[in-house]
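Input chain follows. Return structure tokens only.
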Amino acid sequence: MKSIKTKLKIDITTYLFVLLYFLCGYIKNIIIIYIIIIFHEFGHVLASKILKYKITSVTIYPFGGITKSDQLINAPLNSDLIIYWAGLIFQIILFVPFMLFYKLGIINLNTLKLFVYFNICIFLFNALPIAPLDGYLILNNILNRFTSFYNAKIITYIFSAIFIAFFIYFYYSNYIIWVFLIVNQLKEIINFKYVFNKFLLERHLYKFSWRRKKYYKEMNLKKLEREKLGHYYNGFTWLSEKDLLSKMFDKKGYF
């Protein structure tokens, strides 16, 4: 098993961002920002490890990070939610050592104020329902408890697009951030077909022991919900989602 070191990636834009801050003399600022970002990602990593997911990569970007693991799309919703919240919770926990450092005289009041400012900004930014931020994943997780996987994705995309538009309107000068958000939004939309196919393929290949069942009177896999075993009526009899997916994959292969 590879160590976490081999999985840590630093995006090229991060190096440029750090260099720019150093040249401008904002050394303390950049150190505080990346302490927050790394601690945030450590929250995701620790939660994933506790839930026995293997971390595939941790990528550090100028204003945040992305932690990827090998969990299935059909993983338990509660497990996913714990991972999504872990980074934000760790940011809250980070207030404790910084307050302690200030009390002990290790850092001064100005450093503490900088930390509080950056931590709150990064927390609020990550809480936005915009891809690929934590708020986006949390919103999608909540929607999956009330509607189909397909519909939850579409609704989350709409929310993400609306919030990106607001972000650009109010913070148009932060072009690096909104370009990053637009690019990731487009990636999400472009990859949606493959993500949905993977969602169905998992349902076809793996045996899930969910107790809840959902009955559909039309043969539409877009209505399939997470943590619910689907049953479809073909006009004569009820077919399980396994029957329907087997016929689909056997006939068409990976669509």
